[in-house]
Amino acid sequence: MAAIKSKNKRLGRANTPNPLQSLTAAALLLPGVMLGVAQAADEDEFTFQYGRYEESHRNLGDVKSQFDPISVDSLQAGSKISLTDRVKFAFNYVQDTWSGATPISTSPIAHPASSNRQGNRALKINNTIVAGASPYVQTALPVYFDKQFNPVRIINDTGTDADGNQVVEYSQANELAHTMALASPETRKEGNFKLGYEWDEAAVDVGGGISIEKDYESRFGNIGGRLDFNQKLTSLTGGVSYTNSDTSARFDHDVLSVPGVYGTYIDTSHYTNYIEKTSDGNGYMMTGNRQDWAANLGLTQVLYKDALVKFGAGYTRSTGYMANPYKAVTVFFIDPNEFNDENADYNGYVNQPYTGQIQPFLEQRPNVRDQWNFSTGYVQYINPLDAALHVDYRFFHDDWGIDAHTFEADWVQPMGSGWTVTPRLRYYTQDAADFYTPYIISKQAKRGVKTDADGNPEFDADGNVIEIPYDASKLPAHFSSDHRLSGYGALSGGLVLTKQFAKGLTLEAGFEYYNHKGSFKLGSGGESDYADFSYYTANAALKVNLESVGRAMSGGEHDHHAMHHNHGAPLPAGVMFGHVMTTPGDIMVGYRYMYSRQDGRMLHENELAADQDIVSKGCNLEPGLTCRTSPAFMNMHMHMLDIMYAPTSWLNLMVMPQFMDMDMNMRSLGGVTPNVNRDHLHGGHETGGVGDTGLYAMFKLYQGAGHDVNMGVGVTAPTGAVDIKLRRMHTKDEGYIHYGMQLGSGTWDFKPSITYTGKVDDWSWGAQVNGTKRLENRNQAGFAFGDQLQSTAWGSYSLFNWLSASVRGIYTVQGAVKHQFNAVIGDTSEGDPIMGDVNPKEGSMDNPKNYGGRYWDVGFGLNATIPSGSLAGNTFSVEWLQPVEDDVNGYQLERDGTLNATWSYGF
Amino acid sequence: MSTEFFRDQAMKLLLIILPLAVSFTGCAVAPWERGNLAKPQMALDPHPLQTELSGHSHGSREAAGAGGSASGGGCGCY
User: Fold this and answer.
1) Contact A476/A440 with Cβ under 8 angstroms?
2) How distant, in Å, are the alpha carbons of A410, A721, B58 from that of B46?
3) ∠ CA B17-B19-B24 to the nearest 5 degrees?
């Protein structure tokens, strides 16, 4: 493969016969070298990608949602490696973190109480909207309907006619709007792999993986194959896959019922057998299992030297719980008494509209879905421009009533000097599912009166009428208001830009804008414009071709290269800024992962803290405040990309973007009666996304025989969010999530370091002092983390020429958080709005004084460098940091330890 | 799900694909004419990373998301 590529590169745009062409042909004839048409380029590579998805605000009529729309940060890192010439292994890690507002239900905009319209309640004080806008899918206030069951808006119900009867005037109001609900940050993590074996004209592979989020876990496996024939001009592919997914979605405890308010908030009775108590006993969750079996077949055919065509067909059968546990359907109950009695208008009014009483239900989807896919594509080489046109069409059909068509066109245009520009255009259109409905009208009373055979009301022993609730079995069997099942079209377009550097490094950036509109649907019947929205995605990727670099350096040069990277002493995985590249033009790409966990006991300074002391002294941010909760555990994961470049022999420049994700849970402190409304005891918090970005310069201060001294100076830019808030819950607003759960420092930070390394024979050692000085007094959220100083020293011994082990000591001092979160004004009560600062203050981690401290750790590490072969120059290291002694500021959770793992590759 | 049903569906797919495969066996492109076909822009998927990311976005927003091969992807409940 490398041979083909490099030959092509040299051929460039030459269209006339050329001596090299015969060489190319010769190379192509070699068995195992000629690439089949359906064979993906399978060079050994490492890829890293970051993507951002951001949705537009939804159209809510004249009410403006104060929630941010959904946004997603995605991170993907993967590698493809040849274990032998014929055995290929690929693995990927994917992580998405999302948060923001998303539709939970739909209802007519004609709701009479304007402050409750669409359920997005705005809180008012002195007629000024100050905060809030919460999901409010149900109220006791009715929606009115005309005789044709269209929603109406009452204009005037105080007039009278000539006979003195009261007259109701109303106008049609068919407009709909979503009710938005806010999702707290949540992270999904997926790992998957593929193991393949290749023959000259065939391949098989097996793969599998797991995807985990707090409320959904999915495990999958697949097996596939490829057969080339007709001198590799024709390829057949096929595969079968199986996915098994479990839902365990925790309900807000006030979703199931609101005491003292109008009945059940969302009717979940259909799912009684699926709703279980959560393991912590504080709430309920929806449980469900889903299985997907899929099979697909594909055919790729070269038509002539400049074009190929492909066909595909696929079938998927899904069974089990396929509904979305966070989507509700609004049902309006209209008492038949209102329209059965045609002679008289109701209650003595003339032209009285029907009264629709609201009751939202969790959506109900069928538990079987058969899906078929048919696709075709065409790829044409455009000779004069050296470009390629890709055109694709896909037809989708399922037994839920959805037919969908996708048209896609890409123009891949190489621009010279390694640049490629690809404009892309896509159109998608789908029919609505049979059971899709914005809302349901049920012609029965929400609360009816029990009647006897003659239609007269029945009374109980006390003489009160006997009420009977609605009969849910009279509703349709399946219903959903999820706009993904509505009829609509979507037009999207974007651009991909790639730049390939000579050394096998490729950078890629992409952008896509996506516009979903009911009116874009092919044919008629698209959903009206309240459901329209748009989003954009932007992403950046880095690809390192391990194979081409490895091969390019085979021979003497290669050995030199490997030596060059080994000559510096191996560094423990947790040490950064310890190595300066001395060959001008060298590039190093690295990936760092850090996991640290706090768990177990609470400490006060260097002793165990008693719960009573935490309660009385841990939250003393304001006089009289006591603690109610403390953290039960906290996990932090950091993924860091490390790109280093040597413009001269004494200076290296580094860029280090970071991606964070964190989760924690709380516990009630001893002696405090837990209160789910007040204490966030609802299954933990998660945050994640882009962290701060480091920019560094490293200088070689001294290089002697076996001794090196380096200095690093740099800053971290505050690219990580520090304004993440908890979502409104239990009809109370919430403020900023804990300091330690924010993704960055929010301040520009100065980060100097000085490192000494030494090496004699198999022994090496080193020491480093590094610091973090906050360059600003407070960030946009109002606080600043404390400054930090760290000293470390280590020794390392080479066990083999490729493996060494290290031991390290670390002492860290960090200051407490300075200042505190800016006040967030919101509704602090569960009832009538009482405005005040809603920042959480009753957890020990909400007190800025409970941050920082003095820490001793010991690190044990392993460091492996691949000395030869196609993966030469790859270094892997791991290090476990074991806390030895903590002396914390205030009251804090004990540390469990930190794992550092790094991969780096120089070329 | 019955395996028979599944086998029937698989047979249908084969019946569509195989005749196409047979009909193309007459095509011929000599190895030394395959330079253009081997160019990266002619790859079946020239931008696999982009495809993965945009496919994930489309899949979480469209009913026809399941592209025929199941591969995790999460709930997409947002």
Assistant:
1) yes
2) 10, 34, 19
3) 100
Q: Nearest residue of B to residue A408 by CA position? A: B51
**CA atoms of A805 and A902, how far apart (whole Å):** 14
Give the DSSP H or E segment for A139: none
- What local confidence, expressed as pLDDT, does residue A258 receive? 41
Which candidate from B13, B58, B63 shows the least CB-CB separation from A313? B13
Residue-wise DSSP of A563-625: HHHHHSPPPPTT--S-----STT-EEEEEEEEEEEEEEEEEEETEEPPHHHHHHHTTTTSTT-
Report the alpha-carbon angle A240-A246-A250, nearest 5: 155
Closest Cα in chain B to A491: B58
CATH topology of domain A585-906: Porin (2.40.160)
Measured between CB atoms, which of B10, B63, B66 is closest to A295?
Answer: B10
Integer Cα distance of A184 and A736 in angstroms: 12
Cα within 13 Å of Cα(A605), Cβ side: 3
Query: pLDDT > 70: what percent of chain A?
Result: 84
Residue A732 has pLDDT above 60, yes or no: yes
Displacement of CA A435 from its chain's centroid (Å): 29
Burial of A702 (0-12, 13-18, 19+ CB in 10 A): exposed
**DSSP E strands: which ranges in A354-487?**
354-362, 368-382, 387-398, 403-416, 419-430, 439-442, 447-449, 467-469
Q: Give the closest residue to A570 by CA, choosing from A250, A285, A800.
A: A800
Task: Decide: pTM greater than 0.90.
Answer: no
Q: Which of A315, A535, A542 is the best mutation test for B, with the most CBs of B within 10 A?
A: A315
Q: A347-378: buried (b, 16+ CB within 10 Å) or exposed (e) per residue?
A: eeebbbbbbbbbbbbbbbbbeebbbbbbbbbe
Cβ A333 vs Cβ A262: under 8 Å: no
3-state secondary structure of A556: helix
> Mean of the pLDDT values across residues A747-754?
96
Contact B67 A373 (CB under 8 A): yes
CA distances A276 to A214, A280, A667, B18, Å, are: 15, 11, 21, 49
Which residues are CB-neighbours of A893 under 8 A, at least 6 positions away?
A598, A599, A600, A601, A602, A603, A630, A631, A633, A634, A845
Q: How far apart are the first and last CA of chain B?
A: 29
* CA angle at A298 for the pair A295 and A303, rounded to the nearest 5°: 175
Encode pLDDT of A824-872 as tens digits: 887 776 555 677 888 888 899 999 999 999 999 999 999 998 887 777 7
CB B54 within 8 A of CB A512: yes
Average pLDDT value for residue range A250-265: 57
Instruction: Please answer whether residues A631 and A644 qualify as being in contact, where contact means their C-beta atoms are separated by less than 8 angstroms.
Output: no
Give chain A positions within 8 Å (CB) of B37: 37, 302, 305-306, 308, 381
Task: Report d(CA A317, CA A606) in Å as an integer.
Answer: 58
Type and span of the H or E element at A255? helix A253-256
- CA distances to A349, A491, A903, B43 from A368, rounded to whole Å, are 48, 30, 45, 36
- Each residue's pLDDT tens digit, A808-824: 999 999 999 999 999 98
Q: What does DSSP assign to residue A553? A: T
ipTM field: 0.80
Give the whole-angstrom CA distance, residue A837 versus residue A831. 16
Domain with CATH 2.40.160.40 in chain A: 585-906
CA pair distance A564, A59, nearest whole angstrom: 60
Contact (CB, 8 A) for A179 and A120 = yes
Look up residue A71 and give its two tokens: 């946004």
